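Troubleshooting: if your tokenizer reports a length mismatch, compare your output against this known-good record of 81 residues.
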Amino acid sequence: MEQQPQKKEWTKPELMQSMSTVKPVMTRVPLRQQKSDFAYWQAQPYAARLAALEAIRREYHQWRYGAEPRLQRVCAIVKRK
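Known-good structure output:
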């Protein structure tokens, strides 16, 4: 039988030391100096743009109406001979 590798048990100081090496990456930029997202979205494929739009639409309907949107029932009176 092969020996399986042992999982490393982290002690709290080791864990805290490893977590402190991750640094957040962000920059403060005045609102008027922000880059436009237009170039990014133009570079995305058509299907990805539609998927993002659908996700935004669903999120809006969930926030606004508290439910998933559904198709409306449409009734039409048709005159028969």
